[in-house]
Design brief:
- This protein is an alpha/beta fold.
- It folds into two domains: 37 residues; 283 residues, SGNH hydrolase (Rossmann fold, 3-Layer(aba) Sandwich).
- The chain has 16 helices and 13 strands.
- Strands 6-5-7-12-13 form a five-stranded parallel sheet. A two-stranded antiparallel ribbon has the order 1-2.
- Helix 15 packs antiparallel against helix 16.
- It is elongated and about 100 Å long.
């Protein structure tokens, strides 16, 4: 063997050894960094799980709570029940059936939003909407919440069915996690362990909202994914969370080093370098597409509610990190959004005020293990909303008079509004928020 061949062989062996060591270190690092960056999985594993979960979703013999919806992407199955979690035949989270027109003397409220509105992890009677009804018999609160919804889907549901039961007031719930859903089409692009569901989204063309319909509206579309799981990559064009470095990288599945570099790189870029990133520091980034979409959707939502003759009210629902930040003397991550709502005259209530007032226990007592409000957290929301809505109802009478509505309709609404809230103003534990600029 010549000297040249020996040197070449030594270099090859050295390179192979270096690759083995690097891959071993990368595997170790992926395990150690798991709590920080999450589990990093091969795309083959992701697609195999996707197929398994689509089969479960389409299984008619063992129906899940989720059911496919051509317009919205998904909704909760009417008539679903498991333990104390139930969806009425009207498709609402309720143990009762509502008349199409609210009876005389009843104030009807409709609540739209995600799982914090639906009340995941607690029984139907423990959700804040149900607790409001139990506390005040003159109120009906129709719960249209669906887990995983962005405000875009909540808005489309309102447009399609929100005025059917003639609500007087429409609440639109918002949780910090909702913001990223506005720039998402496939849930598993956000988190590869999520249920494989697709959704519509809006785009901004100047100041105009343009709807991109649900890309997989039919059951047959999901069945095709069973035959070709990787076809989901064709739907990443309008999804901010789709990452070609993962799904189009031929080395990703074969190299732990590549997976580690991609995982760390994407997290650093998404959090600190992307000019369109959701977060700027520890708060929402007002220049991001998602933030601008959220504002535009809130305005559109509010305008449509008013056109239907109801009173709109945005509810900012804090999650555990938000409450912890406020207790530590900082601001909520959605504070820039609240400031914009106030600046542009969008009516809202920030429920951080409710949790700020309750200092009797640990923050964890407000939440279930999965991050949703516990029974106690729901009770805090219900009680505080009843208190604050008293002032909104008083203002509603002025609103109705100024709008020029006359005759029996005006008298009927004023009669309803004068019968609530169930607690007198002297019993309220905090001043009305409209006097502090929160309700416009």
């Amino acid at each position: 063997m010549t000297l040249v061949l020996k040197n070449l062989l030594i270099r090859c062996m050295f390179f192979i050894l270096l690759v083995i060591i690097t891959e071993g270190l990368a595997y170790t690092a992926l395990g150690l960094l798991g709590p920080l960056i999450g589990e990093v999985r091969r795309t083959s594993v992701i697609f195999a799980e996707q197929t398994e979960r689509i089969r479960a979703l389409l299984d008619v013999e063992h129906p899940l709570r989720h059911v496919l919806d051509q317009l919205l992407g998904w909704r909760y199955r009417p008539g679903y029940r498991e333990g104390n979690d139930m969806v009425s035949l009207q498709g609402l989270r309720s143990e009762r059936i509502y008349a199409q027109i609210p009876p005389d003397g009843i104030l009807r409220i409709a609540a739209f939003g995600d799982s914090m509105v639906y009340g995941n992890e607690v029984g139907t009677s423990d959700v804040w909407t149900s607790q409001m009804e139990h506390a005040c018999r003159q109120i009906q609160v129709l719960n249209y919440g669906v887990g995983g919804y962005g405000v875009d889907q909540a808005y489309l549901r309102y447009v399609s069915e929100g005025s059917l039961y003639a609500p007087h007031i429409v609440l639109v719930g918002f949780v910090p996690d909702d913001l990223r859903r506005l720039v998402n089409v496939y849930r598993r692009f956000i988190d590869d362990r999520e249920i494989p569901l697709f959704k519509p989204r809006f785009m901004l063309e100047g100041s105009t909202l343009k709807l991109l319909p649900n890309p997989l509206p039919r059951r047959s579309d999901y069945e095709r994914l069973l035959m070709d799981p990787e076809a989901v990559t064709h739907l990443g064009q309008h999804d901010q969370w789709y990452k070609p470095a993962i799904y189009e990288n031929p080395l990703y599945d074969f190299s732990a080093t590549v997976r580690l570099a991609v995982a760390v790189g994407l997290r650093v870029y998404n959090r600190y370098l992307d000019p369109n990133r959701i977060w700027k520091g520890d708060q929402f980034n007002p220049s991001s597409e998602a933030f601008r979409l959220q504002l535009a959707l809130f305005h559109k939502f509010v305008d449509d509610i008013r056109q239907n003759g109801a009173r709109p009210l945005i509810l900012l629902l804090p999650d555990r990190p938000s409450i912890l930040r406020v207790r530590a003397g900082s601001r909520t991550p959605y504070a820039p959004l609240a400031a914009k709502l106030s600046e542009t005259g969008v009516p809202y209530l920030d429920l951080i005020e409710a949790f700020r007032l309750d200092t009797t226990g640990p923050v964890d007592s407000f939440f279930m293990p999965g991050g949703h409000y516990s029974r106690r957290g729901n009770e805090i929301v219900a009680k505080w909303l009843l208190q604050q809505l008293g002032y909104v109802w008083q203002d509603q009478q002025v609103h109705l008079k100024r709008s020029g509505q006359q005759g029996a309709n005006l008298r009927r609404k004023e009669s309803v509004l004068s019968s609530v809230p169930c607690a007198s103003a002297t019993e309220l534990s905090s001043p009305p928020l409209e006097k502090r600029g929160a309700v416009q």
